[in-house]
Amino acid sequence: MSLPESFGDLRSILPPWETTSAPLSLQQQLRAALADALSIDGEEVRQDRRTGERVYIFRGQLRLPVEGAYEQISARLRPLGFTPLLQREEDEIAVVAIPGELPESRLSAPAWVHLLLLLVTLVTTTVMGAALSGMPPRAVWDALRTGNAHTLRATLRDGLPFSLTLLTILGVHEMGHYVAARMHGVKVTLPFFIPLPLSGSLGTLGAVIFIRSPLMNRRALFDVGISGPLAGLVVALPLYVIGLGQPPSVGLPEIWLQLGIRRISNPPLLDFLASFVTDTPNLDRFVFYSHPMALAAWFGVLLTALNLLPLGQFDGGHVAYALLGKRAWPLAWATFIGLVLLGLQGFWMAWLLWALMGFFTGLRHPPPYDDLLPLGKVRTAIGIGTALLFLLMFTPAPFYSP
Predict the structure, then answer these.
(1) What does pTM read for this prediction?
(2) Residue 3 phi, psi (nearest 5)
(3) Contact, 301 vs 237, CB < 8 A?
(4) Where in 342-401 does DSSP place strands (E)?
(5) Is the Cβ–Cβ distance between 243 and 296 less than 8 Å?
(6) How far apart are CA 340 and CA 272, in angstroms?
């Protein structure tokens, strides 16, 4: 999952404003700079009561080709000290001139911090991978403290297949975001892996990158949002099939008994792939008791599906806005309500957590600076295909205990 920093739509990023008079000379300069780019049919000046900065809004019909229009308008306004937002408002185009340059986050960390978090997460996921094979986590931590070589060897034997599979999927997912962001000239951090040394967990909360400069248009928003899930799936699906072909090594550890979990729910996509490896009539239970690689890949697919939810700053939220624009906002609300209902109905209580995460990151996904540049047929087709893929990976109740 990536965490971008960008402006929202005009009504969400600008209030509270007060209409006010403005220095005519500056307003005239802006109007003159836009004269051959926009047939100005209306203009407005607003003032932020908190900062006192004036924002100039010009509405009309675009006189430039949409392709490259933002760059040309930006070149006209930059010498005047303004950055433009291009948005479509019903049958008009709005150019919003915001004082200052493009915002940029200073968030960064030295390479050793990323490496240290990765190594710690490798330890915690290996411990939990061993726990999934029946070894109590407390015994593993005691072995680490006392240096019990026999237990440590057993931990590595049973836990590494799980941890390496899961971290590979998470790492490739985040590097997909990273590469796509760099291709669009977006500044971005390396992945931060998040360890979770908590019994009953996967040993990690996943990984995240932080986008330090804005995603300028829908194409960048789409590419950065969709590249992570697709890259992760390219790794997760083959590892799932390979894991199912390994000798079963997972029993029914006490950790799952304590959580009341006896089986996992296999989504249609994984059922289809498993049919090439096994003909077992009880596939949900088979996957749960199978090799740790298969189980880790199953979790990787589950996390990918969660990231593709069309909510807030989730990857699916980026993709949904790139495809649908502001029509993605009611879809986000519908998804939020659906997750709350699934959680309250007892399908999986964690749906409530994901709903809250989507709510607090903003159900109204902010438009990019250039909200006019069309996505294009190829990206639209990939987006629709990914939406169908999401439906094949989604399951209302990932865990159950019949």
Answers:
(1) 0.86
(2) -120, 95
(3) yes
(4) 399-400
(5) yes
(6) 29
Place of tokens 């390219």: 234
What local confidence, expressed as pLDDT, does residue 370 receive?
93
Q: What three-state secondary structure class fits 61? A: strand
- Asked which of 238-242, 282-286, 293-297 is least confident by mean pLDDT, the reply is 282-286
Given a contact cutoff of 8 angstroms between Cβ atoms, the answer to whether 140 and 172 are in contact is no
Contact 392, 269 (CB under 8 A): yes
How many of the other CB atoms lie within 10 Å of CB of 283? 19
Structure tokens at 277: 């490896």
Does the N-terminal peptide bond of residue 16 adopt cis geometry, omega within 30 degrees of 0? yes
DSSP structure class, residue 100: S
Token pair of 313 as six digits: 């700053």
Whether pLDDT at 117 is above 90: yes
> Residue 402's pLDDT band (boundaries 50, 70, 90)?
low
pLDDT given at position 54? 85
Q: How far apart are CA 298 and CA 345, in angstroms?
A: 24
Contact 307, 236 (CB under 8 A): no
Of 192, 295, 278, 186, the C-alpha closest to 236 is 295
DSSP assignments along 167-230, one per residue = HHHHHHHHHHHHHHHHHTT--BPPPEEEE---TTS-SEEEEEEEB-S---BHHHHHHHHHHHHH
CA–CA distances in Å: residue 3 to residues 214, 224, 225, 324, 399: 11, 11, 10, 20, 28
**Cα separation, 145 vs 139, whole angstroms:** 10
Pairing of strands 192-195, 92-99: unpaired
Rounded Cα distance between 34 and 86, Å, is: 12
What domains lie within the chain, and their CATH numbers? 2-99 (3.30.980), 111-307 (no CATH)
